[in-house]
Amino acid sequence: MYLPKTYEDFSDKFSEIMKDYQQLGKVCREAGPLEHKCQDLVKLGIAVGASSRGAVMSAVRKALVSGATAEEIRHAVLLSLTTTGFPNMIAALGWVNEVLEHRER
Question: Residue 98: exposed, middle, or buried by beta-carbon count in 10 A (0-12, 13-18, 19+)?
């Protein structure tokens, strides 16, 4: 899976923090009944709500790995329209499309 250089640099420089952060993420995922793909789509929705380009793109990559289709991913973003507004949803859709286009190459 593609990871941004900034993420890789942080991971290299602060490996113990990254290890603990990843462990926290694992524990959070295991804390409830949602299956992995559903978790990734929920995380995508949270990232859209936070208007975080990096988090949206990361969530899309993870959702694809867990079996989500491009249509399911775009639908999750579309659902944000009435909650976060048109400009935020459109920006997120653009970030999603960047990942999907990168994947097709």
Answer: middle
Task: Tokens for 65, please give them.
Answer: 């790995």
Interior CA angle at 24 toward 22 and 26, to 5°?
Answer: 70
Furthest-apart CA pair in the chain: how many Å?
Answer: 40
Structure tokens at 58: 């990361």
DSSP 46: H
Distances (CA, A) of 40 to 12, 14, 71, 87: 25, 25, 14, 23
What is the reported pTM? 0.87
3-class SS at 104? helix
- The type of residue at 52 is S
**CA–CA separation, 46 and 65 (whole Å):** 18
Residue in 18, 17, 84, 27 with CA at minimum distance from that of residue 56: 84
Tens-digit pLDDT profile for residues 4-55 = 899 999 999 999 999 999 999 999 999 999 999 999 999 999 999 999 999 9
